Automatic annotation (TrEMBL):
PANTHER family: AAA FAMILY ATPASE (PTHR11603), MEMBRANE PROTEIN (PTHR11603:SF147). This is PilT protein domain protein. The lineage of its organism: Bacteria, Bacteria division Kazan-3B-28. Pfam families: TRAM. It comes from candidate division Kazan bacterium GW2011_GWA1_44_22. SUPFAM superfamilies: PIN domain-like.
Amino acid sequence: MLLGQIFGVIVLVLLVTYLVFIKRAIAVRSADFAIIIVGVILGLSIGALISLPFNKLEGWLVQWLPLAINIFSVAVVTTYFYSQRANINKFFGQLITFLASIASSRKELALGSGGSGEDVLIDTSAIIDGRVLEIVRTGFLSGKLLVPKFVLTELQNIADSPDDLRRSRGRRGLDILHELRREKVVQVVVIEDDFPSELDVDAKMVRLAKKRHVRLMTVDYNLNRVANIQGITVMNVNELNNALRPVVLPGEELKIKLVQEGKDRHQGVGYLDDGTMVVVENGNKLIGQEVKVMVTRVFQTVAGKMIFATINGNQ
């Protein structure tokens, strides 16, 4: 029996050597060659199990019958595996793709949402706007600030524009990013995610925010609305600015400097420190002066608040 086992090992070595030679001779694909090797190993295993009952035989049968069974088993299993190589390759290809998609989903969930959804994806308009720098300095932002590489590319293209205004805006955006990195209050991370099928940067931002389960920071009105419709949490810097403006009620007294005429000739226009426009009735003759006014009406518009007032009678 020992002689048969030794002979079986020798046969296995010879078979593998032969198969390697065949692979080189006929240039079998690596995947197909792997299937042949698996077939040989599985065939030998099956042959060994089938041969176990015959080990109790005596004479020449105990030496040669197990060997014959092993050779037959290897031939049958290997031939069958090789004939089904297309289906086997397809099955393992689908299995690998499925496992890779699960691993990718877990990685995206871990990296994208940060476990708490605190990371913020920032778009080109919010970077150029610049107020994000002050927001970061105050410590109101937590998590990472995610900057897509395609946003950097867009900023670079704007900074290289032949138009003076666009070039100035692009360079301002790049300077803001540089300052954000220097602040080190939040971690600024450049991410490689892209969607080549999408030509519009706004569409890419929406898909990326959904993919990573993060908030989106912008000052773009249209992007804000589209993202909201798709269930994305949007941090609109303009809305934040409006929310932080001091509340002004009718009857309150303000002190402002009138700088220009209003739409009507008798009106004068001034601005609060936060940029809110104040339209003063009968203020056209006081342009250039600092006056006390009484608030009469407050209007909230998409662009912000607009205050109407009259000259304080005590002046």
